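go over this record:
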Amino acid sequence: MAILLFLLKWLELRFVVFNHLFEIYAGIISIVFMVLGAWLMYHFQQRKQEKENARKEMVAIPELGLSQREMEVLELMSQGFTNQQIADKLFLSIHTIKTHGSNLFVKLDVKNRTQALIRAKELEILE
């Protein structure tokens, strides 16, 4: 009896698969292309981010003589952090942050933070 029931279920499954073969193939192909698209998007997005970071470093540092730490301070300034918050985030003293800020102002030829951020965006150092 169990063998007969198993045989009927197997035939039913085979019948369903045979009748809906096109839909099954289309579904499998859709899933394959969806996974491929997601992988490509991730791959190219990661590559784009690496290129942007490299471009920022290549343009900003040699041309203006900005150090990596000054770049970090500038990016945190652009996010609206105060000197104290930047010092806390980078584990530095507030006086060190002020020194980096002063160096940024000299190198960017500006007088305040707002002008520094505008100048950095003009030079495409910041987005």
About this structure: Helices lie at 2-19, 21-64, 68-78, 83-90, 94-108, 113-122. The two ends are 72 Å apart (CA to CA). The domain at 24-122 is CATH 1.10.10.10 (Arc Repressor Mutant, subunit A).
